[in-house]
Design brief:
One of its GO terms (biological process) is apical protein localization. The two termini are 53 Å apart. It contains 27 helices and no strands. It has helices at residues 4-9, 17-36, 60-86, 90-114, 120-144, 149-191, 195-209, 213-221, 224-231, 241-251, 255-263, 266-275, 281-294, 305-310, 312-325, 329-345, 347-355, 358-366, 375-388, 394-400, 403-410, 420-440, 444-452, 455-464, 473-489, 496-503, 507-515.
Length: 522
């Protein structure tokens, strides 16, 4: 069956089931028509637009989306055939095999209608796949005419083998098609001197990259990162820099993209863009997005970070300036996300931030609801504060910038929409603000400010009330750690029961007590 990487590349946006059916209906109708006409293509008469023909004059991007949707349907059908085969539902297996046969023929016809040229290898694969589908359909029809269970049992292994072969040919064909389309787009980007053609090709490449990591690997292997950085080094394409950098950020989510970035000195190019004041804010913001992508702490490959360290000081300086001068919440989010990621892999970054008065700039930005307007932005800010708080000098900066008040407010972070991503961001804000308080409260002045702002009652509430922390264990652990640090500095701020249950026992015992606590206990 198709590999997980292929299936992930053929993903569709999750929508309401009725809406999905409406979208797929056109494909299904076309499939049935093709079946009736023995898969003979329907010609377009003059200017008449036949609704059953899906390969009408769309853009390359539209045609690729159509191809991916058809491929996704075929992948789903192949998986369902395997499931029905396991249950020996031969009638369903045969009817679904007929449907797959029609979909495969339609997909091949559609692609050959809009593609400019196909390789000999692709034609051979298409023939192999179509022939194997025809053979599969005939074979399952013979199975329907047999009632002997022993014969069916022996035929079942042959059906399974044929199904596996079809899935293999199908996967190879889709891989080849997507590779060819990536090559065509990259050829346009590299050879065209036209602004319009280059912009169109980059836009199509970006759409392709949005289909998943597998597509990004194909683009990277075909030299996509090299071609895109070449655009970013030509002044005549300055107006395309934001779009080009946005595409780079998508492609560089995979290891192959990172390797290419390293080979073409991509980090030096990004540093040059960020430090060039003649570029627009949009260009700087998209360059920050690429930096955020390649420095993500979630990435397991870090070979590129050696060259990053060489340019880190000027990159950090430019990002702090971008945060300070951001005209919108989106620009601030991209710049602060890049800074947050950078602080994870080198403490030198935190020292540079301290020298640049970044703490003061970030705290001031948080008071501007126009700039820091979402939990996602606050998550980036508190991440930077948490990572900087390991430095002793940070305590005085926090006091001067009224940072303890901000951390206290962050302990109340709640999602207004209930959106899962936003809820998760709110949890991270609560957790990291508690971690920052715990680290900074080793300084008596910070601890005293926290006590005066009633941080202790809020931390107790978060520990004892699961709904306050959205049942998050990470928030609970951080709050217990912060509470214990403040209790040392101000033991009179706790009631005896709180001390006995939340401070005195081992942290793991207090954790277990709080995770098993009923809401009515509060």
């Amino acid at each position: 069956l198709p590999s997980p990487s292929l299936l992930s590349s053929l993903h569709l946006i999750q929508v309401d089931s009725v809406q999905r059916w409406m979208e797929d209906l056109k494909l299904m109708t076309d499939c049935e028509c093709m079946c009736i006409l023995q898969s003979k293509p329907i010609s377009i008469e003059k200017d008449e637009q036949n609704e059953l023909i899906l390969s009408s004059q769309h853009s390359t991007c539209d045609n690729l989306q159509l191809l991916l949707k058809r491929a996704w349907i075929i992948s789903t059908e192949l998986t369902r055939i395997a499931q029905k085969l396991e249950k020996n539902r031969w009638q369903r297996v045969h009817s679904m095999t007929v449907r797959v046969n029609c979909h495969v023929r339609s997909m091949v016809n559609e692609y050959n209608t809009f593609t400019r040229s196909s390789s000999e290898e692709m034609h051979q694969l298409e023939k192999l796949l179509i022939d194997k589908c025809s053979e599969f359909t005939a074979f399952t029809e013979r199975c329907l005419q047999t009632e002997d269970k022993e014969i069916l049992k022996s035929m079942k292994s042959c059906v399974n083998e044929t199904l596996t072969t079809i899935a293999q040919y199908f996967g190879q064909l889709i891989e080849l098609v997507l590779t060819q389309e990536a090559q065509n787009l990259l050829r346009q980007i590299e050879l065209s001197g036209s602004l319009y053609i280059t912009e169109s090709a980059i836009s199509s490449l970006f759409s392709l990259a949005q289909e998943g990591a597998h597509l990004c690997r194909i683009i990277a292997k075909e030299g996509g990162v090299v071609a895109l950085f070449k655009i970013c080094r030509q002044d005549c394409f300055r107006c395309l820099y934001p779009q080009t950098l946005r595409t780079l950020a998508s492609v560089c989510c995979v290891e192959e993209g990172m390797h290419q970035l390293e080979k073409v000195d991509g980090i030096l190019c990004l540093a040059d863009i960020l430090t060039d004041t003649s570029h627009s804010e949009a260009t700087h913001a998209e360059a920050a997005a690429v930096i955020a992508q390649i420095t993500s702490p979630h990435l397991t490959f870090t070979q590129h970070l050696s060259s990053f360290l060489e340019n880190m000081e000027e990159i950090v300086t430019a990002l702090v300036k971008l945060c300070q001068e951001a005209s919108s919440g989106e620009v601030f989010l991209l710049a602060s996300a890049a800074l947050a990621n950078i602080t994870f892999f080198d403490t030198m970054a935190c020292e540079i931030l301290l020298q640049l008065n970044a703490m003061k700039i970030l705290l001031a930005a948080c008071s501007d609801k126009r700039i820091v307007d979402t939990p996602y932005s606050r998550d980036q800010v508190v991440t930077i504060l948490a990572n900087m708080s390991v430095l002793d000098q940070c305590a005085s900066e926090i006091i001067q910038g009224n940072g303890v008040q901000l951390l206290m407010e962050m302990l109340f972070e709640k999602s207004s929409s209930g959106n899962p991503a936003e809820v998760a961001a709110c949890e991270r804000v609560q957790q990291k603000s508690a971690v920052t308080l715990a680290r900074l409260s080793r300084d008596p002045e910070v601890a005293d400010a926290a006590v005066k702002l009633s941080c202790i009652p809020r931390l107790i509430k978060l520990c004892r009330s699961p709904t306050e922390r959205n049942n998050s264990d990470s928030v609970l652990v951080a709050c217990l750690a912060a509470l214990r640090r403040l209790a040392v500095m101000s033991p009179d701020g706790l009631e005896e029961s709180d001390f006995q249950q939340l401070v005195k026992p081992r942290l793991v015992d207090s954790f277990l007590l709080c995770t098993n606590m009923e809401e009515s206990f509060v």
